[in-house]
Amino acid sequence: MIKENIERVKERINAVCSRIKSDPGKITLVCVTKGRPVEQVLAAVNSGLKNIGENRVQEALEKYKSVSGACWHMVGHLQSNKVKDALKIFDLIHSVDSINLARQINQQALKMNKIQDILLEVKTSPEVNKLGFKPEVLAEVCEEIIKFQNVRIKGLMTIAPLLDNANETRPYFSKLRQLRDQLNPGWLLSMGMSGDFEAAIEEGADIVRLGRIIFEDNV
After folding, report:
1. Distance between CA atoms of 24 and 132, rounded to whole angstroms?
2. Can you tell me the distance from the alpha carbon of 132 to that of 96, in angstroms, rounded to the nearest whole number?
3. Cβ-Cβ contacts under 8 Å for 14 (sequence gap 6 or more)
4. Predicted confidence (pLDDT) per residue in 67-101, tens digit
5. Is a pLDDT exceeding 70 seen at residue 65?
6. Residues 87 and 108: beta-carbon distance below 8 Å
């Protein structure tokens, strides 16, 4: 089932890219394995998905022992007390949502002699429970974080509201693209999940984070 689901997802990505005359090879598909047993993670990796996303550091550490040849993405909220462990395995942290977190990542990366790639999480929607930097302070935040020697900003990330109509998520993705274009057109955009990834790609996503659509039937 997992292999077949992956093929269907790739077909949908190819179809979107064909419509917008974009190269599907430039889209990074991050397979989000939160709550999935290691057997399913291995099935996804063996089916060609080499980018693995996790929401929790401890769960990722356990799976990391059994999965080789993957690039690891931290896509959930990163707690300050988990930074040290996170830097041991994650190639890209998508969810940097405060200057203090970026500072702590920088401090730990310095101790490890590592340059840690990060994305800045941006709150493009008005939901109270959403984390991330407000768009109006992002330029100022970037100026501060760029000073840190052991973190490297690779782009921006956002999570759109869960809406019945995926097309209604477009303004949130478009907002992130506009912010990126103002700050650094070379930065990556991580946006789009199982329910709205096609709209995200049409609005400029470079990275999509998919879990349910890969591991479940009839999605």
Report:
1. 28
2. 8
3. 24
4. 999 999 999 999 999 999 999 999 999 999 999 99
5. yes
6. yes
Asked if 169 and 193 count as a contact pair (C-beta separation under 8 A), the reply is: no
Q: How far apart are CA 44 and CA 84, in angstroms?
A: 27
Owner of token pair 């059994």: 66
* CATH (domain of 37): 3.20.20.10
Residue 219 has pLDDT above 70, yes or no: no
Encode pLDDT of 143-179 as tens digits: 999 999 999 999 999 999 988 888 899 999 999 999 9
**pTM confidence score:** 0.96
The domain tally of the chain equals 1
Between CA 218 and CA 10 the distance in angstroms is 16
- Is residue 157 within 8 Å of 121, Cβ to Cβ? yes
Rounded (5°) CA angle 113-114-115: 135
Q: What is the domain range of residue 72?
A: 2-215
Handedness of CA 165, 166, 169, 174 (dihedral sign): negative
Between the CA atoms of 197, 200, 205 and 210, what dihedral angle is there, to the nearest 10 degrees?
Answer: -20
